[in-house]
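User: My collaborator sent over this chain with a note saying "see what the structure looks like." That's all I know about it. Can you take a look?
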Amino acid sequence: MASVAEVYGPRSVGVILTGMGTDGAEGLGAIRKAGGRTIAENEETSVIYGMPKAAIEAGVVDQAMPLHEIADAILAAV
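Assistant: Without extra context I'll predict from the sequence alone. Here is the result:
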């Protein structure tokens, strides 16, 4: 995600889905710092809420939403 942020800046869109760890939060932070949009899957539809939760708690998520709404949010952002 850091490479995407560097190359595409404010045209970047980053998405974190269900999973574990915190590396996704770092990537979303780079995209957000570059002026891009950031989205995370919400707790209700995440099988494992670790990575989306870490990104939300880090304050790098613009929108958290159910999995079935993410594709439309990506299209709206581009």
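A starting point for your reply to your collaborator: The chain has four helices and three strands.
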